[in-house]
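Chain A, query sequence.
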Amino acid sequence: MATSTKWVLDPMHSEVQFKVKHLVISTVSGFFKSFEGELVTVDDNFEDAEISFSLDVNSIDTTQPQRDEHLKSAEFFDAATYPKISFKSTSIKKTGDDDYKLVGDLTVKDVTKPVTLDAEFGGSTDDFYGNTKAGFEVTGKINRKDFGLTWDGVTEAGSIVVGEDIKLNINVQFAKQA
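Chain A, predicted structure.
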């Protein structure tokens, strides 16, 4: 009989990073500092596992407090109304030795759309305390305008201030629950 196992995200050993083009010529990086997630596997097999993940919009950090406040404002994420961004997987398929296609529903503000991300399994091991950990690097690209993040600044010279494509780079470590 198949047994399901719950894995909980270890925030101490995980990070959520995003990158977006600024003025088309340079890239700005930012992080979300607060997030949570879990993974449910069947027979410890990550294929067809169920993943749920959410992050706290108010934890955004681009190293510029003024810019962070703008991103939290109604012009962008509207953190006061929509404090969380969430993801729920619909499928995980193995595409190589350690590679997976992760498909799921991403909700930003009040918009939910399917996204496809690449996940690379970094392996699993036991830590000093005998806890089994599994690591993944999840990467992908989304268009912010698909999720209602439509604010556009244009400079006097006609350059777009913020690019539409947002690159995601998420490194997560999950701890197997007994």
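DSSP finds one helix and eleven strands in the chain. The chain has one domain: 4-176.
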